[in-house]
Write the structure tokens for this entry.
Amino acid sequence: SFLGKTKIGGIDINKPRIRTVFSAALSLACAPRGFTVADFATTVRSMSDSTLLHYHARRAAYDLKKLRAKNLLTKLGNSHRYSIPSEAICIIGALVILREKVLRLILAGVGKRKTGRKPKNWSLIDEHYETIRQDMFTLFEDLRIAA
């Protein structure tokens, strides 16, 4: 991606820092007057574990630049404030939810051919996850990448 004439690197959602950046961006998306780089850095630090204690404005500006290059963030006029468009909120939210709430659960069980007995409180959602898990296991076998 490019921001102006500057080539900007990609965003790897598998990196813990980027996942925290996305979560911080979602939490600041509702700020009525936008947010600054310092606001963003403070939010990232507060949302992270001890690995990002040294997350300061310089690194925050770099991450915001990446988000701007992907059109997930806009700068408010000539100010030093940023906002997140509603379409970008949907995209970031979908990425976070898919990775944390869907893919993690599916991939955790995809290596197991059979599971134990079903619990008594088995729900319709559990049934959907089990169907997806079985289909993914079959797909991995067909692709010859099953463990």
